[in-house]
Design brief:
With about 350 residues, the chain is of the alpha/beta class. About 40% of the residues lie in helices and about 20% in strands. The protein contains 12 helices and 12 strands. α5 (about 100-115) packs antiparallel against α8 (about 190-205), α7 packs across α8 and α11 packs across α12 (about 310-320).
Length: about 350
């Protein structure tokens, strides 16, 4: 596609468009999610948009809540949607501040740890995650899951679920290698890890600064339950074209947190056509809910499918047709498209579109 828009290099922002910036940050690091970007990127965008107290930010693909957490720290109200139960539970756990519930969460956690922790399984292999655990550990994890699901108070239940998932991953043989879940050595005893994560999460949650409200809801970005002209800005990153199905690499988290996502963005036999059809629908929704003059920042990446697919230009073209003005396209990262891991066949961009509702 012939470019109508000038590309502006912001490679200094590129390092923020990745998970690595979260790994040492309290609360943000609770859930390893390689598709997430760092809060520093959100801070840069919020400043660029001139957002302040009284504004509301939307993230239609909120993932594990980085946009919502960062906006809350900055003092800007936010709302996020996602179709993945895993990411919504994770985001809700991160957003709540334990406060007065801290003592109750700690006590319920201790009660669960003291219980025998054994669930009989007619067939150990019947569980999809069985290959990643020894039998004793899996039985303890399942017993813990059952106890937590019976807790009535949602805040306590969600918080302990997050601690359980972190402990289960520590006690499993699983590790993530790109888009693949592989097996290696177990790092920790499950019950000790569970106790450790409860305590550290409570400490980090109590110390976290929240200056504005944030909400996370399980819903599709196509058909969000929001009023017309109700949002000041959108900050988001849709799944990338040719991105792996997250259900595979997050198999354990999906199983333990209880559910599969409602649908995968861009599903269909003609994946490229389905992807851009869904993207067009999301842009239409974003335009509907944004106030006049409202701004949007969308992080996305080009892809190689026998040729380079310039997703940033295609999305910009669709955005204009939906009534947006393309203010800028920032290049965050560049890399070579490779065939058979060695042959260079083109250059791929990771870009950020800055849009404004006309």
């Amino acid at each position: 596609m012939e470019a109508k828009w000038k590309l502006i290099e912001r490679l200094d922002w590129g390092r923020f468009a990745a998970w690595q910036g979260n790994q040492n940050l309290p609360v943000y690091r609770w859930f390893y999610y390689k598709e997430a970007f760092s809060p520093q990127l959100i801070f840069e965008i919020v400043r660029s948009f001139g957002l302040a107290e009284g504004n509301v930010v939307l993230d239609p693909f909120c993932g594990v809540g980085t946009t919502l957490l960062a906006c809350s720290e900055f003092g800007v109200e936010s709302v996020g949607f996602d179709v993945s139960p895993v990411t919504v539970v994770t985001t809700l756990a991160k957003l709540q501040q334990a406060g007065n519930l801290g003592a109750e969460i700690l006590e319920r956690g201790k009660e669960i740890i003291k219980k025998p922790g054994y669930i009989k399984a007619a067939d150990y292999s019947e569980y999809r995650i069985a290959k990643y655990f020894d039998r004793k550990t899996l039985c303890s994890v399942l017993a813990c899951k059952k106890e937590i699901e019976q807790i009535e108070k949602p805040h306590t239940r969600i918080f302990l679920k997050m601690a359980m998932v972190r402990a289960a991953l520590d006690a499993s043989f699983a590790y993530k290698d790109g888009s693949v879940l592989k097996t290696g050595k177990r790092k920790r005893d499950f019950r000790r890890a569970f106790s450790h994560h409860i305590k550290t999460m409570l400490r980090e949650s109590a110390a976290a600064e929240r200056k504005a409200k944030a909400y996370a809801v399980s819903a599709s970005a196509i058909g969000m339950p929001l009023k017309n002209n109700s949002i000041d800005a959108v900050i988001t990153s849709p799944p990338y074209l040719r991105q792996e199905d997250y259900r595979k690499v997050y198999l354990i988290e999906n199983f333990l947190l209880g559910g599969e996502r409602q649908g995968f963005f861009g599903e269909g036999k003609e994946k490229t056509a389905a992807y851009f059809s869904d993207m067009r629908a999301v842009l239409r929704e974003m335009h509907r809910v944004l106030k006049r003059g409202g701004k949007a920042a969308i992080v996305l990446s080009n892809a190689y499918m026998e040729r380079v697919i310039e997703c940033d230009f295609i999305t910009a073209e669709m955005a204009e047709k939906e009534g947006f003005v393309v203010k800028a396209i920032y290049v965050l990262n560049k890399r070579h498209a490779l065939v058979k891991r060695t042959k260079k066949v083109g250059m791929l961009r990771e870009s950020m579109l800055f849009l404004e509702k006309g």
